[in-house]
Structure formats: C-alpha cells, structure tokens
Amino acid sequence: MPANVMVGYDGSPAACAAINAGAALFPNAHAWIAHIWQPPFAGKRLRRRLRAAARTADELAELIEREGAREADTIASAGVALAKAAEWDAEPVVKRTYGSDGMRLSQLAEQMHSDVLVLGDRGLDATDAVIGSVADMAVHYSTVPVLVVPNPLLAEEFAALARGPIVVAFDGSPGADAAAEKARTLFPDREVVLAGVRDEDDDPAARQWPDDVEVLSTSEPNWLGRPRDRATADALIDFADRRDAAVLVVGSRGRSAVREVLLGSVAVAAVNRSHRPVMVVHS
C-alpha cells in the first residue's frame, strides 16, 4: 500500500532535494506538500514594494496579509508540480503560524495521519549550521517518523535510495524495537539490517547480541576526548556507507552508556553527521 508522505517545502534547494529523495524512497506515494508561512508573511523584496505602496500601517498590514498568502500558495504549488513530476499523487497544504515551522509541520503530519514527515536538512534561512532549525525542531518533537534528507547527495547515494537496504540502529531497547518495526512497515520490500554498537564498557560474556544484529565497534576510545554519541553515530554512519544503505533509521531513545544516548544524542549526531538520509522514529 502506498505511503502517505508529508514534505515540508519552502522552495529551497534542500526542500526540492527532499521531494526527489522522498519519491525515490516511497514511489507512488500520496504526498502533502506543506508550506508554512509566518510573520512577516512575505519575502523582503515583496515587503519593500508593499511599504512603498501603502499609505497607512493598517493598509500595509492588509497588503502583506494578502500578498503573503498569494506568495505562500505559489510556493506550495511549485512544490506540488515538482512532486507530480516525480510521480507522486500530490496536493498542497498551506498553513500560517506564529510559532515554530518545525512544530507546526509536526502537528500537521500527526493531524493528517502521515506515515512519515520528509524534510530537507536546511531551508532558505540556512546558516552555517549543519541542520536547520525546522528539521531540528521536528526531529525532537514529531510523533510521526521524520526523514531528514541531506543536500547534496552524491550520485551513488541517490542511486541507493531506490535499491539500498535500510540500516536500523539497534540496542535492544523498546525505542530500537519500534524503529525496526517502523522500518519494516515503511519499506516492506527492502532488506532491513540491524546494527548495534558495542560499548567499550560492555562485558562480552554478559552482553549477548541477537544473531541478526551486526555488532560494530567505535573506531576511537573515549579517552581521546571524542564524545561517545559522535563515536557511536560515526560507527553507524560508516556501516551504512559500507552497506550502501538507502536510509539510516534511529530510535528516539535507547538505554545505558552507549545505549542511553541512542534522542538521544546519537540520533541527533546521526542526523547532523550523516551524508545519507536519516529517519528518526519516536516511541
């Protein structure tokens, strides 16, 4: 059964890349292309023109509301056209907010019963941050799985979207179980590979990993000062690269030591550091 996908779209290159990647991962899906607009409701160039045209503050506010709504509809329509070109059954969703775009998108995805919320790593307001504020907020608070698509993807990484396995970070916690189950549900025709990262404090004799889990080790010991979450995320990312994975899936929380940071901080680190799409599943 085709997935119901919501894509946060603001017209940025990252948002366009998110649509293309999402279409490769979820072919023939029904897609809501969601554009959130907020104060001051219009682009800088448009606001400059409106300030010159308005005679009073009330008239300026009315013009900004009207033209901002039109601009928002135009942006969403462009996203729908791109999604339809990627063979999605797509329709626009335009909402106004006075708060966080990421929070509003998370609410919309839940209200419209989306199977997954797809976001680019950075939008039009991108700074030097690796991940933008919209994706960061959604990753932390969405109850719907959030797929963050980095931009740009290399040719081999994009090709893997249509055929690669799904790597799931696994630590035996309920969050990891939920992530694995969601991965199998969303990608029923893909190989799902469970990957666990061995804690250097683990007693090999006491810690028994399931037979179907690929057990990894961090490449650097903690005494070198490398944060545990980054080392764990890097081990998972490296494994996903070696398996030419389509997506790396992480649960929202894990348990104890390496497992305690799997949002966990490992999920955050994976989203920030991976060159392949990362899906965060909240349990």
Automatic annotation (TrEMBL):
CDD domains: USP-like (cd00293). Gene3D superfamilies: HUPs (3.40.50.620). It comes from the Bacteria. Pfam families: Usp. Residues 4-150, 231-282 form the UspA domain. Belongs to the universal stress protein A family. This is UspA domain-containing protein.
